[in-house]
Amino acid sequence: MLCASGRLLAAQAATTLPAPPQAPGPALHCRRRELHFPGYPELPSCDPLAGRLVRQSVPLGRRAIRRRGKMPPATGGGLAESELRPRRGRCGPQASRAAGRDVAARAAARNPKGPAWGSRRFETASRWALLALVTLLSFATRFHRLDEPPHICWDETHFGKMGSYYINRTFFFDVHPPLGKMLIGLAGYLSGYDGTFLFQKPGDKYEHHSYMGMRGLCAFLGSWLVPFAYLTVLDLSKSLSAALLTAALLTFDTGCLTLSQYILLDPILMFFIMAAMLSMVKYNSCADRPFSALWWFWLSLTGVSLAGALGVKFVGLFIILQVGLNTIADLWYLFGDLSLSLVTVGKHVTARVLCLIVLPLALYTATFAVHFMVLSKSGPGDGFFSSAFQARLSGNNLHNASIPEHLAYGSEITVKNLQMAIGYLHSHRHLYPEGIGARQQQVTTYLHKDYNNLWIIKKHNTNSDPLDPSFPVEFVRHGDIIRLEHKETSRNLHSHYHEAPLTRKHYQVTGYGINGTGDSNDFWRIEVVNRKFGNRIKVLRSRIRLIHLVTGCVLGSSGKVLPRWGWEQLEVTCTPYLKETLNSLWNVEDHINPKLPNISLNVLQPSFPEILLESHMVMIWGNNGLKPKDNEFTSKPWHWPINYQGLRFSGVNDTDFRVYLLGNPVVWWLNLLSIVLYLLSGSIIAVAMQRGTRVPAEVAGLSQVLLRGGGQVLLGWMLHYFPFFLMGRVLYFHHYFPAMLFSSMLTGFSPLLCSRHSVGHPPAALCLGLGLLAPGQGHTRGGNPEPPPGHRLQLLPLPPSGLRDGWSPGPGPPKSYGRTKVARLMGILRPLQRFQPGSRNFPEEPAGTQYWTLPAVRKLPKEPEEFCCPPGPSCGSAPGTEASIGESRSSVHSTTEDSTLQAAPWCAAQRRMGARGWMWVRVYVRAHCPYPFGTQTV
Q1: Smallest Cα–Cα separation from 769: which of 759, 779, 777?
Q2: Which of 80, 84, 236, 809 is the most exposed place for a label (fewest CB within 10 A)?
Q3: Which of 689, 723, 753 finishes a domain?
């Protein structure tokens, strides 16, 4: 049935056709309304015979398949079948129910080979049964021997310990967001673990401590990777064999299985990544019924999964990027759909903003709110954060503390660097080794609370005790020249022109002097940055710089880790570059002075947005500063796809239960081969689409599946793999496993590459290859070779590659069968079935006549004689007028019983505008002349 826009377009096309001769006689009728050009007989476009006899030939291009509909049928299929095509707001079985029983019955009669209702039910039941089997196998393999080995394996020492911290509510620092560790702690708490196991090093026995709950959570979430991948590939490829192959690869991959059996963040991360991918694919498949309950469900679940992936590790940003690119492309298409009003487009944009931006951000922020609420006690991670942050932790010396507000001479203080994760100014009795500057006492920065962090602030020109009750209180002011004396060793903070241990062109900072007596290199000028509180220095609030009086350099920390002789603490230098950076800014944290009144620090506690921002800055700094541990197998990204080197989980001694993380070589190398083959096939398809090559409908549909479905999976693999080449942090083999999931799903598409309808099959590959050599559609070639009179052959000019043939007399096809076969493979010539004499379609033809037809018509004539000449020995070949009539669904060589039309041309065209703006055009041609088309057809 034609919509209003279709009738309008068809009417405009009709105005380009000449007025034909009036043909008396009754016109054939059909059950459906037809588009009828005035003066031409009606053609029954729903002729079931035509739809069954001609194999479909469609262009290999963007519009070969409706983006939001189903794939075109593999064979035949006229416009009558469009009654069952999904309309806007309905898809799948809903469209069939809406069409009615009579329409479904007529469709079944026209296509007797179509699947019966019982077979469809059997197919659906089979898919559910296979999904259940795949899920059962996945759970069985992941939970098999989950308790072995009964000791700590690899990073269980970190994430198991962090689970204990959540149970004990002890604050800690980690470079990853908190969701994964919170889930591990929750699983341990629910399974009876009391949080008392120390998790000191790999190999420590668990003994009586309950650890199976935490391992069980990781195995449970890791088991869902296989069914998620199965459903994703099934939805993208519409191929059960592709989905089963993907499930088999992931089920029996030893690396993916091993990674899911231990207390790690990776199975939790991969669970949310695959859930986000599946949800995105599902809501894409429901795009033809937007704003339905199912559409909202999958869109919202995508946002929830994105929040989960990012809440476990920052690697979740890669799946967020993939969903974002998919959303941008989707909205770009919607903006170009003129059948949608701006209000509808605005609703689509609003829905995606709410579900894919607002909802994930809200959930991600909520995980940090719970994280800060649970971890309320002071712990080993305090020193990574600012003094104001520490003031909110119970048990910290700044929590509910009362200290003097303004800094005075004689006070015992700790000085903290404002750069994240630098720590406190620190010194100890160890000296710098020989050859490292002056052999004097080391000065470093240390991240943790320690007695060696205490310094006494004194005037530069006196050794008297400022705490003597006989001396009045004297406050330290901006611009004062001071000495900092280390309380434990009584050595002064000192600098000179010797080079720093690690940083070139920086000066060494040491501890020098005896009982506070040194030289002029111990003098520093204190400056307050952005003096908001006047000349006095306020504890915790004032940002200060210490400038060396002799060299003019600024005290700072490079953040570089010293070797073992420096106890792997951070380097302190005096930089001659006076540019203000966080590395050279400090604040006074602890302040002890019995001569001064105290104030409460509760007013200094930061707000939630401030601690959220600070925690992210510390995590980013920590990620970039990760260094490899002793005896660890680090790797490079190019090692990962080839399974070059694994990772030792446990078992240093020969007698230990040893676990080694390594992927199944067959699976991993097959994945790598599939990526290469897909890139080659995808390149051929993409170039063929750009060249406008015409191929059979089966090849066109399969090519669209490979490009769109496989392209999404390939994009996921690239986004989860290539960014690691740009990272400066230490990398391990397990970082590749999210990308490995996508490469396994891409391998699942390999049965489609081997299909007889795929580009990998020889006839289809030949068709595509020759199509790449074909000239552009806008070029006009010479006239067609003249067939004998009575030989009804419609020719498409072949490419200039030596394939142009002459025709031998007789009713059959050309005798040059080799080149004719190539032409048939290219879709240039296509045979019809033989007809019996007296059939209602061709009553005047003898039995056994072979007919050929064009796959499509791309030129419409200006005049009748240019379209089809009267029967005769010669006929003109004037070029016609190109018509932008969209892509053709089929081209059928048809006729009518009216004898008065045997010597006269006629044409009837139908256009139908789809719900998404796609156009199908049918052109029927009937002509008795040596040159059926005087113009080029493509």
Answers
A1: 759
A2: 809
A3: 753
pLDDT digits (tens, 9 = 90+) for 147-191: 989 999 989 999 999 999 999 999 999 999 999 999 999 999 999
Instruction: Say which residue, 805 or 685, is predicted with more confidence.
Output: 685
- Name the token pair of 677: 């083959």
Q: Tokens representing 753?
A: 């590459």
pLDDT in tens, 366-401: 999 999 999 999 998 888 888 888 888 998 888 888
As a whole number of angstroms, the distance between CA 170 and CA 856 comes to 73
Does 357 lie in the same domain as 210? yes
Q: How many domains does the chain have?
A: 3
H or E stretch at 185: helix 179-190
User: What is the residue range of 562's domain?
Assistant: 402-600
Instruction: Find tokens 């380009």 and name the residue.
Output: 16
**pLDDT tens sequence across 724-777:** 999 878 889 999 999 999 999 999 998 877 664 554 444 444 444 434 433 333
- pLDDT for the residue 655: 57
The neighbouring-strand residues paired with 571 are: 444
- pLDDT value at 597 more than 70: yes
Tokens standing for 389? Answer: 């942050």
Residue whose structure tokens are 């390149």:
683
CATH number of the CATH domain containing 460: 2.80.10.50
* Cβ partners under 8 Å of residue 562, min gap 6: 444, 501, 502, 568, 569, 570, 571
Whole-angstrom distance, CA of residue 615 vs CA of residue 388: 12
Does the pTM of the predicted model rise above 0.90?
A: no
Per the CB < 8 A criterion, the answer to whether 302 and 253 are in contact is: no
Beta carbons of 382 and 393 less than 8 angstroms apart: yes
Cis before 594? omega within 30: no
Residue 763 burial class via C-beta count within 10 angstroms: exposed 0-12, middle 13-18, buried 19 and up? middle
Q: Which residues contact 736 (CB under 8 A, 6 or more apart)?
A: 637, 640, 641, 721, 724
| Cβ neighbours around 856 below 10 Å, total | 21
Tokens encoding 59: 């262009």
What's the CA gap between 71 and 64, in Å, rounded?
Answer: 9
In this prediction, residue 14 carries a pLDDT of: 42
Residue type at 197?
A: F
329-334 contacts at long range (C-beta below 8 A, 24 or more positions apart)? 330/284, 330/287, 333/67
